[in-house]
Amino acid sequence: NMVAIYAINSGATAGTGYGLFATKTGAGTTNIGGYFNTSGGTANYPGIFMGGNVGIGTSTPNDGNLVVYGANPIISLQDNSNPAGSGSVLRFGHDQVGSMLPIAEIRSYLTNGAGAANRAGHLLFLTSTAGVLSERMRINDNGWIGVGTTLPAGTLDVKGVGSTSASWGFGVRNSSDAYSLIVRDDGYVGI
């Protein structure tokens, strides 16, 4: 192994212990406290953070593994490709016996590959059944919501699971969990 900087700080301390601490202050056009970049390898990891929480804008990330703190904080996932169908993914996974499996995703989906002024996109919601992710809901560039369909044709478009009276695509339950309204897949409405 080749190491450019190797820092170890072990042992008990009465205050805060740092393995690596970098700061940049003072007048300047741009101040960068730390810049990490890797390239050329089969696998490139500019940073691996294990055994603790990561804070951005806070030195006490106690509310989760990643805490972004500040006035109106933004987490930005940006895809630098431009073909239709490209987009960023927020994936939720679960470790099943040492193998990380996706159980849900939220995806952005570029519907066209046109210039920046003409970009249009959808937001997709996927869940997993038997380890396979499938789209369950979509919000298109018009703001229309499709449940069970990738092509919503109205403000709310719900696709059922069949075409008979035995199945239905929309239901409303009361507080006792009894259905007070259903729309069957054969077109009939029950109240």
Descriptive overview:
A hairpin with a 4-residue loop joins strand 10 (179-184) and strand 11 (189-190). By secondary structure, the chain is mostly beta strands. The model has no long low-confidence stretch (mean pLDDT 85). The chain has strands at residues 54-56, 66-68, 89-96, 99-110, 121-129, 132-139, 145-147, 156-158, 168-173, 179-184, 189-190.
For the structure shown, list the relevant keywords.
191 residues, six-stranded mixed β-sheet
What structural class should be given to the helix and strand makeup?
mainly beta
Report the sheet-strand fraction: 25-35%
Strand arrangement, major sheet:
3-4-5-6-7-8
Give the SSE order as H and E letters.
EEEEEEEEEEE
General form: elongated
The rounded distance between the terminal residues' Cα atoms is 70 Å
The protein's oligomeric status is single chain
Helix content: under 10%
User: Gyration radius, to the nearest Å?
Assistant: 24 Å
Number of contiguous helices? 0
Q: List low-pLDDT spans.
A: none
Task: Give the SSE layout.
Blueprint: E1 54-56, E2 66-68, E3 89-96, E4 99-110, E5 121-129, E6 132-139, E7 145-147, E8 156-158, E9 168-173, E10 179-184, E11 189-190
Parallel strand pairs: 1-2, 7-8
Antiparallel strand pairs: 3-4, 4-5, 5-6, 6-7, 9-10, 10-11
Brief rundown of the structure:
The protein contains no helices and eleven strands. The model has no long low-confidence stretch (mean pLDDT 85). The chain is mainly beta.
